[in-house]
Write a structure and sequence with these properties.
With 289 residues, this protein is an alpha/beta fold. 33% of the residues lie in helices and 16% in strands.
């Protein structure tokens, strides 16, 4: 049971109402891993647009802050967007959780984004490249599942930072973002498909592990998405989708915003496919590239 006497994850608290006028994510502290990717940047801005107090925009240590949405934070002055160098290791994940809790006292949303497609052909796929794909695509969501929920279940009083709100119930949302290769073959190389299936396995196995905790876990699997608004190479592929065009990063981000919020309070273990109807129109395969 949560501290308010209701089952974990079920709250009448005004602090978690998705209908609150100051934003459905007001007060939330979020982690976005893969924030240097266009979809990661879009998700960061989506969370900020709905009132999140702080977003840790995590990138590989080699990526600069300029690749994240930190330079666009002026549009949301009450949301702190912090560039956070993150290596996909257990030690780095534990440090990230400690830093979040020590600074803000709470964690509400954890987004992981797989950005690597790996080798396109089996002949060029090596055990080393396969291992790297599994680390980036499936191991990072595993770390989120293992180490995120204990932090998400913590309650706290209202902090002294902008958009702060008290947390009086157990609440958390883990969102694993990848491609439609999570369910289909032929969308990418062998390694990408294998690792994407494994990431979806983290989501599906996580539902039982999170039972009764108030923490939900879901996946988003996207199809052809323009990365910079001018990716003409995708247009031919996307013509076979139900909408006749490639998707936009923000269209994936809006689904993440839904899954982060209380609007999806009874959604867990789902794989939200954002592909413009491509798999319905072409059930065999729609390549990512």
């Amino acid at each position: 049971m949560a501290s308010n006497g209701l089952p974990a994850g079920v709250s009448e608290s005004e602090h978690f109402s998705p209908y609150r006028s100051d934003g459905k994510l007001y007060g939330f502290v979020c982690v976005v891993i893969g924030a240097a990717h266009p979809i990661g940047r879009a998700i960061t801005l989506e969370l900020a647009a709905h009132g999140a107090a702080c977003i840790y925009a995590c990138t590989l240590p080699s990526d600069s802050a300029s690749k994240t949405a930190t330079n666009e934070s002026s549009s949301y002055p009450n949301t702190r967007i912090t560039h956070y160098p993150y290596a996909p290791t257990e030690e780095a994940t534990l440090q990230l959780v400690d830093d979040v809790l020590n600074t803000h006292g709470r964690l509400d949303v954890w987004v992981t984004l797989a950005t690597s497609l790996g080798p396109a052909k089996l002949s060029s796929t090596t055990p080393a490249s396969l291992s790297a794909l599994f680390e980036a695509t499936a191991l990072v969501p595993f770390y989120a599942l293992k180490y995120g929920p204990p932090a998400m279940r913590k309650s706290c009083s209202k902090g002294g930072y902008p958009n702060a709100a008290p947390k009086d119930t157990e609440y958390g949302s883990i969102i694993v973002v990848g491609s439609v290769a999570s369910e289909y073959g032929g969308c990418g190389g062998v390694g990408h498909t294998m690792a994407s299936h494994a990431a979806l396995g983290v989501v599906r196995s996580g539902v039982k592990e999170l039972k009764g905790t108030g923490v939900r876990i879901n996946a988003i699997s996207h199809g052809c998405v323009e990365e910079d608004g001018s990716d003409s190479d995708l247009k031919g592929l996307a013509e076979s989708s139900g909408l006749g065009r490639p998707g936009k990063a923000m269209e994936v981000a809006r689904v993440a915003g839904f899954l982060a919020s209380g609007f999806s309070s009874y959604v867990t273990g789902s794989n939200m496919v954002v592909d413009g109807g491509a798999r319905v129109m072409n059930p065999v395969t729609v390549p990512l590239r």
